[in-house]
Design the sequence.
């Protein structure tokens, strides 16, 4: 390195080294050396714009790819917020998923204890069947708790009806599962096979009690209770998988035995919807589920006389070719004898569904169906539940065979003869779903077994709180007799002036069929100072012996919580 010039008259010592000199000699640079400051890139204006554009494009691409999810998420959050607003609930009610039973329930029945019996058996799961894992769950809606009940046979696809003492009679079940043609050694399809097993479930001891065997094995049968307390069993597949040709039998309470009735021969498709009418005949609405003759003649709606085996056809059902997987309900009050037919689909696993309803007045000399208001969408497997304000909740169902659940609900008002939409359920329900009115006025919904490769089953319990639960203070029943005799008057005490009084029979639901639920009016004859006197109908065909939920309302269709009463046989 060249010597630096010296200043004139200066000391002979050299100038102090510069930073460059020290750096060149390998010495570390001082901390305040400007060269130690980080170098910050300063892009040009055009580069900054280009980078901003690129970032914007990336964000837009990400948003576009996730828009359906984001839109659904935002929509769900809004719906959740809206569904909890007081004004909305007053108009539409509210749905809540309250529990997961963990059970593949096929049947559900409300017991006189207020608990719900959820019967699965093998639950449409052959692995359970082969392992003999048969299940029953008892749900307590008040505590929202579940209790397992020992189940001694495969109750899957049995029939059931209440006895006059409130016990539930269950008959039939599964002897063998179907074998598809491609899985059969001989290449021929084998149908499900029925059982002769019969049990009573005692709500107090909470256990199944064996009765005598059925005279005929039955799978997919219907049981219906008569005015004298006997229970009639019809239809189903027998122990060979063949449709029952029309054998009729009845359960005798005194002997706990099933009695053959060779004089009563009537072939029905499986799970026929049968209702006890005011004159003692059984009304077949034409609705059914699953198997049986496909001809319209075999599925003809009509009134069956059990004294002489005569069958009076009831004509006029719109679209009778799509009456499978339809719902049937005896409209309130039962004294009016009006029946509603709801939705339905084609025979078997066809994909046809309909939105039609129809209504028939069975008190007419020559009853005939009249078209009712259409549903909000076509529905197979619709759930229809009578409410204590005389309306009917219709929810669930699917547009196809075990597929495309509707996720809609609506309420039919017999006074206006019209439906109105209400809050939508969160869970889709189709095949193997059940619907029950609870004593507190809510509706509980269970099950659903849509068609899938893994045989999926929804075990969540969802509860609907109707609009009347948000319409003001509910009346309270402070006094009612525990036992009621037909043809008498009874006195009640209530916290408000009462508009109407109803006895509602608890439901026992399976495969779109519930022969039990009915709402019977108790006309008010006097009312003063919180005391209400009502008359009890004397017709046992209208008011069969059983335990009932007694509801009163305040004249504005706001019902009380029910009190259980026993209508003696």
Sequence:
């Amino acid at each position: 390195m060249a010597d630096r010039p010296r200043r004139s008259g200066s000391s002979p010592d050299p100038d102090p080294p510069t930073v460059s000199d020290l750096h060149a000699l390998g010495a570390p640079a001082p901390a305040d050396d400007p060269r130690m400051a980080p170098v910050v890139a300063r892009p040009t204006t055009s580069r900054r714009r280009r980078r901003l554009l690129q970032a914007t494009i990336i964000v837009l691409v990400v948003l576009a790819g996730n828009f359906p999810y984001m839109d659904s998420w935002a929509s769900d959050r809004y719906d959740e917020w809206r569904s909890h607003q007081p004004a909305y609930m007053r108009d539409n009610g509210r749905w809540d998923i309250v529990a997961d039973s963990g059970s593949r329930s096929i049947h559900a029945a409300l017991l006189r204890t207020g608990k719900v019996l959820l019967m699965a058996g093998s639950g449409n799961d052959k692995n359970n069947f082969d392992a003999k894992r048969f299940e029953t769950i008892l749900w307590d809606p008040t505590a929202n708790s579940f209790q397992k009940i020992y189940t001694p046979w495969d109750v899957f696809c049995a029939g059931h009806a209440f006895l006059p003492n409130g016990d539930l009679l269950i008959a039939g079940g599964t002897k063998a599962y179907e074998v598809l043609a491609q899985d059969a050694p001989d290449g021929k399809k084998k149908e499900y096979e029925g059982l002769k097993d019969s049990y009573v479930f005692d709500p107090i001891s909470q256990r199944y009690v064996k009765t005598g065997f059925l005279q005929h094995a039955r799978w997919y049968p219907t049981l219906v209770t008569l005015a004298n307390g006997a229970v009639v069993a019809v239809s189903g597949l027998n122990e060979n998988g063949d449709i029952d040709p029309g054998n009729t039998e009845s359960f005798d309470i005194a002997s706990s035995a099933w009695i053959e009735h060779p004089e009563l021969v009537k072939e029905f498709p499986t799970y026929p919807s049968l209702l006890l009418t005011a004159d003692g005949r059984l009304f077949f609405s034409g609705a059914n589920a699953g198997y049986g003759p496909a001809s319209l003649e075999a599925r003809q709606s009509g009134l069956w006389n059990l004294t002489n085996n005569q069958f009076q056809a009831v004509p006029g059902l719109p679209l009778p070719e799509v009456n499978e997987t339809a719902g049937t309900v005896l409209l309130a009050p039962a004294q009016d004898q009006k029946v509603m037919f709801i939705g339905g689909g084609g025979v078997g696993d066809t994909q046809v569904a309909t939105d039609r309803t129809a209504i028939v007045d069975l008190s007419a000399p020559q009853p005939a169906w009249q078209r009712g208001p259409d549903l909000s969408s076509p529905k197979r497997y619709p759930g229809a539940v009578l409410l204590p304000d005389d309306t009917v909740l219709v929810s669930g169902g699917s547009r196809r065979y075990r597929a495309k659940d509707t996720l809609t609900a609506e309420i039919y008002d017999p006074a206006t003869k019209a439906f109105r939409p209400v809050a939508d359920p969160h869970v889709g329900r189709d095949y193997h779903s059940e619907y029950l009115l609870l004593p507190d006025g809510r509706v509980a919904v269970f099950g659903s077994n849509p068609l899938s490769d893994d045989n999926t089953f929804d075990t969540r319990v969802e509860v609907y709180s109707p609009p009347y639960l948000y319409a003001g203070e509910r009346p309270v029943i402070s006094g009612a007799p525990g036992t009621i005799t037909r043809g008498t008057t009874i006195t009640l005490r209530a916290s408000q002036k009462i508009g109407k009084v109803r006895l509602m029979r608890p439901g026992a639901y399976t495969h779109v069929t519930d022969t039990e639920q009915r709402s019977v009016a108790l006309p008010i004859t006097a009312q003063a100072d919180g005391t209400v006197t009502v008359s009890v109908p004397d017709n046992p065909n209208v008011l069969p012996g059983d335990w009932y939920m007694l509801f009163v309302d305040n004249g504005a269709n706001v019902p009380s919580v029910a009190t259980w009463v026993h209508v003696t046989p």
